[in-house]
């Protein structure tokens, strides 16, 4: 290492390595040793490459590496695959195409075992069927692809006039010619959840066009591999259907659409949610078997009765037989009393025991059941709220709704990819696509609340009506955006108010028209305009403009019976059955349950003097 540093120093600073020069009288007895002065001759430093400053024996190429270098990496082993080798996706088993049993090389569990597990555990089967119900209930459409610069309205109008969209819509209504969309989807979506192996056979007509798409059992399809470990392309065989233990036919990618939702580089087949929770399924099956045996078999009696030790054993058998005969034919005889020797008074040298012992009841349902349900529901991206202990209603419904929306998204993407692959196989994918429509909330109250929040601001009245399936309204304002105020609907294209004029804006005080008729009492002079001879005529108001009463702010009222509302003081309001509270941040009275508005508002006004009055059902509370 010292030689290496010297070589670098000599190359960079040759003046410093030429040897020291001695100055006369520079070193004398008792004098300090002076440091040599470094001086440069004006020559700039030389920049060296990494290859020039490596230690002796170093190199930048693998082929020149030798074992004489200190802790050398040595030369790599010469490849044995040959010059024509191409990189493989994974190190598949040699002769993988000869293993024609589908899923045989999955390791540990094959397709047949996955189907048995999915049908054996009741809890797992319920979750699978729920997941299928959710995805089949989603609305869908076939639409034209949006071209650059095209608005959504233009694309929608173009889609309504395109006859090919109607043709594709009719095709997907009965994709295989026998089953409707929901039944057809449930058939192969089951294979995606259990096997992660979707097989759709493309039935073609005489012209080679796709006439129908028939779902096949994914457990009968063997996936073939090329020398790189990937699926061969047409016209080579890519799949084989295995029936009765033997290959029945070869299928190309033009014949069969094979889809895996969770394809991995190191595996030949997919990885389904059922396969991901094998350990949990094993525990659940044993728990289910335990409950079944509890009601059918077992040797734990309902109670144990100890008889005096002086009674012989054969006599105890007679007593047991007599006692059982009394209950013969009773369906509850399994939960019966069993007689044993050893009376409670005890035997010489033994402790005293009770005459009758009731064994502890077996815990049939515990926290483990909820934990297993959570794991299964999480694997299938659905909510476990329906089968768990209920928390408060608002939080439970919100959690279930969020879980369902998050779980539907990946499943919807997978189904859309399969349907778009069918459109691609038909040669129409450049212009058309399968897409999911916006799903409305099934709760009419929640749906109406969302519509009220969006109408006028983001959508027009007719657009909301179209989403609800209603016919459009002929009024002009029904197709405009605007604001709903006390004065009615104000479109966005309404001109701003002019100084001193009314304009088209709502008044500053929305409750100005709600002032009492008696607010202006005493402001009229009571003079009659008919003169003395006009008796019986009603007095009229003077034509002069009157001064209005001072405006007072009105407090809004909001019911929170079904809302998950967070109050700055009271916190979560869902825990209250009856409530009448004021939220100063939004100037809103929060009402829940049945309350007395008059007395409640009077008490609340003592705490908040700034409250002027509020309106409820047309009445004003001052």
Give a short synopsis of this structure.
It is built from 15 helices and 20 strands. It is an alpha+beta fold and 622 residues long.
Written description of the protein model:
- This protein has 622 residues and is of the alpha+beta class.
- Among the domains are: 1-22 and 34-76, no CATH class; 96-279, no CATH class; 444-507, no CATH class; 554-621, no CATH class.
- The chain is built from 15 helices and 20 strands.
- The strands form 7 sheets. Strands 17-18-14-19-20 form a 5-stranded mixed sheet, with helices on one face. A 3-stranded antiparallel sheet has the order 3-2-7. Strands 4-5-6 form a 3-stranded antiparallel sheet, with no helix packed on it.
- Residues 19-41, 500-553 and 615-622 have low confidence and may be disordered.
Summarize the SSE layout with pairings:
Blueprint: H1 2-12, H2 50-53, H3 111-120, H4 122-136, E1 140-144, H5 152-161, H6 163-173, H7 181-194, E2 198-204, E3 210-216, E4 221-223, E5 239-243, E6 246-251, E7 256-259, H8 273-276, H9 278-296, E8 303-307, H10 313-326, E9 337-341, E10 356-357, H11 367-379, H12 393-425, E11 432-436, H13 444-454, H14 461-468, E12 482-485, E13 488-491, E14 554-559, E15 566-567, E16 571-572, E17 579-583, E18 588-592, H15 597-607, E19 613-616, E20 619-621
Parallel strand pairs: 8-9, 14-18, 14-19
Antiparallel strand pairs: 1-11, 2-3, 2-7, 4-5, 5-6, 8-10, 12-13, 15-16, 17-18, 19-20
Helix pairs in contact: 4-7, 9-11
């Amino acid at each position: 290492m010292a030689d290496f540093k010297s070589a670098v120093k000599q190359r960079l600073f040759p003046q410093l390595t030429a040897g020291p020069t001695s100055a006369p009288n520079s070193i004398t007895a008792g004098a300090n040793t002076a440091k040599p002065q470094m001086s440069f001759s004006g020559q700039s430093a030389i920049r060296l490459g990494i290859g020039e400053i490596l230690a002796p024996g170093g190199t930048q190429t693998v082929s020149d590496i030798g074992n004489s270098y200190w802790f050398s990496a040595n030369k790599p082993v010469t490849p044995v695959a040959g010059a024509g080798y191409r990189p493989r996706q994974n190190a598949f088993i040699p002769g993988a195409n000869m293993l024609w049993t589908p899923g045989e090389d999955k390791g540990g569990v094959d397709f047949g075992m996955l189907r048995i597990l999915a049908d054996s555990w009741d809890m797992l089967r319920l979750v699978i069927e729920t997941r299928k119900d959710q995805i089949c209930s989603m609305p869908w459409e076939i639409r034209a692809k949006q071209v650059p610069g095209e608005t959504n309205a233009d694309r929608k109008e173009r889609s309504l006039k395109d006859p090919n969209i109607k043709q594709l819509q009719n095709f997907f209504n009965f994709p295989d010619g026998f089953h409707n969309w929901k039944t057809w989807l449930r058939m192969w979506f089951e294979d995606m959840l259990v096997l992660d192996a979707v097989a759709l056979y493309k039935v073609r007509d005489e012209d080679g066009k796709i006439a129908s798409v028939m779902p096949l059992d994914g457990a009968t399809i063997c996936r073939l591999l090329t020398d790189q470990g990937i699926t061969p392309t047409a016209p080579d065989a890519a799949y084989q259907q295995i029936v009765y233990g033997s290959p029945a036919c070869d299928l190309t990618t033009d014949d069969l659409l094979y889809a895996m939702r969770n394809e991995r580089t190191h595996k030949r087949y997919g990885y389904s949610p059922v396969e991901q929770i094998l350990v949990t399924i094993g525990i659940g099956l044993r728990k289910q078997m335990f409950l079944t045996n509890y009601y059918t078999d077992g040797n734990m009696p309902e109670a144990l009765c100890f008889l005096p030790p002086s009674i012989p054993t054969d006599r105890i058998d007679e007593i047991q037989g007599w006692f059982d005969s009394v209950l013969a034919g009773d369906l509850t005889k399994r939960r019966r009393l069993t007689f044993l020797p050893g009376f409670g008074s005890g035997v010489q040298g033994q402790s005293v025991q009770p005459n009758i012992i009731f064994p502890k009841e077996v815990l049939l349902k515990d926290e483990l059941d909820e934990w297993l349900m959570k794991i299964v529901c999480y694997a299938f991206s659905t909510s476990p709220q329906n089968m768990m202990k209920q928390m408060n209603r608002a939080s439970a419904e919100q959690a279930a709704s969020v879980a369902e929306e998050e779980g539907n998204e990946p499943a919807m993407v997978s189904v859309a990819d399969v349907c778009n692959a069918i459109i691609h196989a038909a040669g129409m994918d450049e212009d058309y696509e399968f897409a999911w429509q916006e799903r409305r909330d099934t709760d009419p109250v929640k749906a109406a609340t969302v519509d009220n929040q969006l109408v006028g601001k983001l959508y027009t009245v007719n657009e909301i009506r179209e989403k609800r399936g209603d016919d459009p309204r002929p009024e002009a304002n029904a197709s405009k955006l605007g604001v709903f105020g006390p004065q009615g609907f104000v479109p966005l294209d309404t001109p701003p108010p002019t100084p001193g004029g009314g304009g088209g804006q709502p008044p500053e005080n929305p409750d100005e028209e709600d002032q009492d008729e008696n607010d202006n009492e005493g402001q009229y002079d009571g003079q009659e305009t008919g003169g003395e001879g006009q008796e019986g005529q009603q007095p009229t108001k003077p034509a002069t403009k009157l001064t209005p009463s001072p405006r007072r702010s009105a407090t809004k009222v909001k019911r929170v019976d079904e809302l998950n509302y967070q109050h700055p003081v009271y916190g979560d309001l869902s825990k209250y059955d009856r409530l009448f509270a004021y939220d100063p941040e939004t100037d809103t009275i929060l009402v829940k349950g049945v309350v007395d508005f008059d007395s409640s508002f009077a008490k609340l006004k003592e705490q908040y003097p700034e409250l002027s009055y509020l309106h409820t059902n047309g009445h004003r509370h001052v």
